[in-house]
């Protein structure tokens, strides 16, 4: 019998790779994209429909009973909502509980961290509290940092097209603190494995492809390219100053955080906090995840294919295949 999976945010970057992983799995998944009513017929959803994904529109302003009805029969509900919409998961949690959803995967998709370090993680922990208060079965999946975030520039310019200009690529302090990285296209395959395992019900799972320091990331690009990547540095005090400055501007008005004109402040604020967590505190590691009580994907599934290495990814970037 097919397992019915609903994905919220299936047309986004994370949602897209999750859907692809489900569809390519040996498990018989019947996938539904839950999308806003106004987006049902857009190009992204039509492409999903061509792959065999069901498209169901929703309106969160409608009576809650309508959302419950739409979730009827869904076994697993996976949220891939972006950070600015995390609070909307509260409506889905209540509806999923009433509809009898057997497992909810909230929007995590980053690295393990304690409360009080990352504003985004704190919001996600509040969501987890709501899930647990509702006694809705769940699985938390953290995947570390995407390979695709860190593409150092090389003198020839061959990696420029994949370099994320809005992400500060300066190496933090001495650059020797390791953190977990995962190849974005591989995430869906990991998810498809995790969500059908009864051992992961009401558990947190960490999965990653490599664990490297920023220096090792830059060395990997050097090996792949045969060139010396550009290296600049930022200190911890400088990061704290960036965070404080951006927070002050963003807190100036309630709409500032989600306004398109403030995207750089929002990114620099969040990435500043992430880099303190990942590159100074060392939170984004299998060891710290174990301390927090996470299950390790590679302990659960030691024979699962490891996936593309960071060096192989960089080689594809350098060849223009990105």
UniProtKB/TrEMBL annotation:
Record protein name field: Isoflavone reductase family protein
Domain of life: Eukaryota
Hydrolase in keyword set: no
One Pfam family here: NmrA
Record InterPro entries: NAD(P)-bd_dom_sf (IPR036291), NmrA-like (IPR008030), NmrA/Isoflavone_reductase-like (IPR051609)
Species per Swiss-Prot/TrEMBL record: Aspergillus pseudoustus
Key words of the record: NADP, Oxidoreductase
Coiled coil (residue ranges): none
Cited SUPFAM superfamilies: NAD(P)-binding Rossmann-fold domains
TM region positions: none
Annotated NmrA-like domain residues: 4-242
């Amino acid at each position: 019998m097919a397992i019915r999976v609903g994905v919220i945010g299936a047309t986004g970057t994370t949602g897209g790779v999750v859907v692809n992983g489900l569809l390519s799995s040996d498990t018989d998944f019947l996938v539904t994209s839950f999308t806003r009513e106004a987006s049902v017929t857009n190009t992204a959803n039509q492409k999903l429909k061509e792959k065999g994904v069901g498209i169901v529109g929703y309106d969160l302003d409608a009576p809650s009973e309508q959302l419950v009805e739409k979730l009827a029969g869904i076994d697993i509900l996976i949220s891939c909502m972006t950070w600015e919409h995390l609070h909307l998961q509260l409506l889905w949690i209540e509806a999923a509980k009433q509809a009898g959803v057997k497992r909810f995967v909230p929007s995590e998709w980053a690295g393990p961290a304690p409360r009080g370090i990352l504003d985004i993680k704190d919001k996600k922990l509040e969501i987890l509290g709501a899930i647990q208060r509702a006694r809705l079965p769940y699985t938390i999946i953290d995947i570390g940092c995407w390979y695709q975030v860190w593409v150092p520039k090389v003198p020839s310019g061959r990696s420029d097209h994949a370099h994320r200009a809005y992400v500060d690529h300066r190496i933090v302090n001495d650059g020797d603190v390791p953190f977990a990285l995962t190849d974005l296209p591989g995430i869906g395959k990991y998810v498809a494995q995790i969500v059908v395992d009864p051992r992961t019900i009401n558990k947190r799972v960490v999965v990653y492809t490599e664990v490297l320091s920023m220096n090792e990331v830059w060395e990997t690009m050097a090996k792949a390219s045969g060139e010396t990547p550009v290296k600049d540095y930022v200190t911890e005090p400088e990061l704290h100053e960036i965070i404080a400055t951006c927070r002050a501007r963003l807190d100036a008005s309630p709409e500032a955080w989600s306004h398109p004109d403030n995207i750089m402040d929002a990114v620099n604020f969040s990435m500043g906090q992430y880099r303190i967590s990942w590159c100074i505190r060392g939170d984004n590691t299998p060891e710290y995840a174990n301390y927090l009580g996470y299950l390790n994907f590679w302990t659960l599934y030691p024979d699962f294919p490891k996936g593309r290495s960071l060096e192989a990814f960089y080689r594809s970037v350098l060849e223009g295949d990105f």
